[in-house]
Amino acid sequence: MTVRIYNTLTQKEDEVRGRGLNPRNINMYVCGPTVYDSPHIGHARSYIFFDTLKRTLILDGYSVRHLQNFSDVDEKIDNRARKEGISSVQLSKKYADEFMRDMGVLNVIQPDHYVWASDELDIMHGITRRFFDRDLVYEAGGNVYFRTERGGGFGSLLHSSLDDLICGNEADTFPFSKENKEDFTIWLGRFDALKRDASGGRPSWNLECFSMVHKFFGCELDIQGGGNDLIFPHHEVGSVLSNAYCRVEFATYYVHNAFVTLQQDKMSKSANNFIATRTLLSEFSPESLRLYMLSSHFRKNIEFSYDSLREWEAVTSMLRKRGTEGDLILSGRKVRPEEAAGATPLWHDFMDALRGNLDTGRATDMLKVAAGRNGAFTGTEGRADFRLICAALGLFGFRAETDADSRAS
Description:
Number of strands: 16
Structural class: alpha/beta
Strand order of the largest sheet: 5-4-3-10-11
Largest sheet: 5 strands, parallel
Number of helices: 15
Strand content: 15-25%
Radius of gyration: 22 Å
Shape: globular
CATH class of the largest domain: Alpha Beta
Helix content: 40-55%
Low-confidence stretches: 167-172
């Protein structure tokens, strides 16, 4: 069996296969945070989900090369930095460090590469220059716009035209200094084709992710990941840019997770409607937060509830008891896929749930039943179950060991 995942591009579950010569080698890019405020549990859900997808792929025998960015070139950062009386660089580092601390506590495996947008301005400038050379962009109203139709137009992910996506009144407010209302900015302010310096403009968010992916993966991205809010316009833009620049679709699989909501509204930093991850981690174990975020299918919203989180804290306590009884939590925590050969049918059923469109709701229900059963996770096979399940779900510091880990040890 191979892992299947819902693909926003095809609107169905697809088997995961890499573009390269070996279909079990996967390149994955997950859009990182804009670092101007504390990460909230909506962010945590997304990174826990993609971490679990990565762990599932590794435990199923895939090799995963994982890239993630920090978006630190943004007006929100500049505005917040002025408000706090510090530089934009200091502010970005402050919140990036907080993000890294939270992800570390949550046992999210670090990507192979963290990339700062501010470190990659040269490649963004070079790509914009190439677009000028090919008459794919133009200057208007003090910015640089991309001719969307020449990149195939919007609609590959939402399968709708722009008029279907935006109500008429909003569409009427587009600045018609642009050639076409669908055209989007890729450079804000003055563009100097000969050099990029502090007196010029800067790339827009639209250009960042495409440029960084192209630098590391070229035109061979397998999985593009992020929340549902990134489908349009951000990931649609990546699709348009790639079709224009590489002549191929940006990614084979576009994977998007649903939201954590408060009173049915999406958690959002910009709307000041969120619960900071660090706040919950001061009250609850990271295992309970991971299990809660994984207890619903990734395509369904989670309406945040302290009562539900407390229920998963109780499950975590039972599971910790099982692990402590057998000295399992204190044992080595790097788990190889080969350990599955010594596991019980519980693990194989559990893994089938994850292979089937990452059905973590079904998988965590299995774990809840096992954690409450006396005698679970005992003996050689039961111990293997515990280690493998914890590695798959990222509990108690366990992790799926990659080939790179093996070579380094």
